[in-house]
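Technical annex, item 7. During the second reporting period the consortium partners agreed on a shared format for inverse folding records so that results from different sites could be compared directly. Each record opens with the tokenized structure and is followed by the designed sequence. A conforming record, contributed by the partner at site C, is shown below for reference.
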């Protein structure tokens, strides 16, 4: 979970009691709880999210976007205006599409914990 300057909260979701334990792309995704109390869920069905199992979500205060790490589809950038970008091992230098966690450092660089080690994405100045 993360929060922006306006008090909006960003969550990854996990379908705990899913009926089909063998199904890979469950009805999870992410959710935003807006500061007015409304909640919106984003999944592969209603957004550009490429896979519904998200591991981590971070709000980027400098770019005013949300970064989402996924279990099978790499890193996702959502600009909160409806535009989604997906970075993975086939279209970027990220070595795998399995990203478990991520964190910004004090300079705004993004660190990804992947199944193939730590990845640093340097912020452009």
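Designed sequence (site C submission):
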């Amino acid at each position: 979970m993360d929060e922006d300057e306006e008090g909006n909260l960003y969550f990854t979701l996990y379908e705990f009691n899913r009926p089909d334990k063998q199904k890979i792309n469950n009805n999870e995704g992410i959710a935003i709880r807006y500061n007015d109390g409304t909640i919106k869920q984003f999944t592969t069905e209603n957004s550009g999210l490429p896979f519904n199992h998200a591991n981590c979500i971070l709000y980027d205060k400098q770019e005013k976007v949300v970064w989402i790490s996924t279990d099978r589809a790499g890193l996702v950038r959502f600009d909160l205006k409806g535009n989604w970008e997906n970075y993975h091992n086939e279209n970027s230098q990220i070595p795998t599409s399995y990203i478990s966690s991520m964190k910004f450092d004090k300079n705004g660089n993004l660190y990804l914990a992947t199944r193939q080690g730590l990845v640093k994405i340097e912020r452009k100045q």
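The mean pLDDT is 93. The chain has one domain: 2-121. All partners now use this format for quarterly exchanges.
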